[in-house]
Amino acid sequence: ATDLITWFTYNTSVTNRLYARTASFCTGSGSQFDYWNQALSFFLQNMTWFQPPGYVHQMIMNTWAEQSVQATVNGSSTPVAAQITADGKTLVIRVVNRFSFSMPTTITLQAAALTGSSFTVWTLSAASSSLDNTPANPVAISPVKTTRPIAQPSQMQVTLPGYSFTVLVASLQ
Prior knowledge:
The protein is mainly β and 173 residues long. Helices cover 13% and strands 34% of the residues. It is built from 3 helices and 11 strands. The strands form 3 sheets. It has a 6-stranded antiparallel β-sheet, covered by helices on one side. It has a 3-stranded mixed β-sheet with strand order 1-2-3. It starts with a helix and ends with a strand.
């Protein structure tokens, strides 16, 4: 997920010329699963399942927003990307926690105000960075949807689990 956030936040003199990004190692045969587990998805004769990077792409697709805006997390170097939809009504923030421990996080908005009483949080996390989804448990590591209350129109507070990719979606005034 960190590479996608880097791509989303890259200098606009370059990204204005980029229209798409493709994923490498898109699919893999189930026979490769235990030996070379780098695919976004795997397939067998009777099933297809995502690995965590496949869910990262799905989460981004399901929360697509066109206009990038600057964002930081608690003033840290935590990978974060923020976008606003073309109609200006929805803010989407994507954050990666590369560490094994949870991170209480406050995101402060500079030029926008949240509306409503809550925002949506999609989280993909695992107890270890080396875990995978298996044919026996194909959704062991998959996105979980929750909501968080809005305490202040200019702030979003959430705890990022260890080894996680989190997408926050909020309505704007």
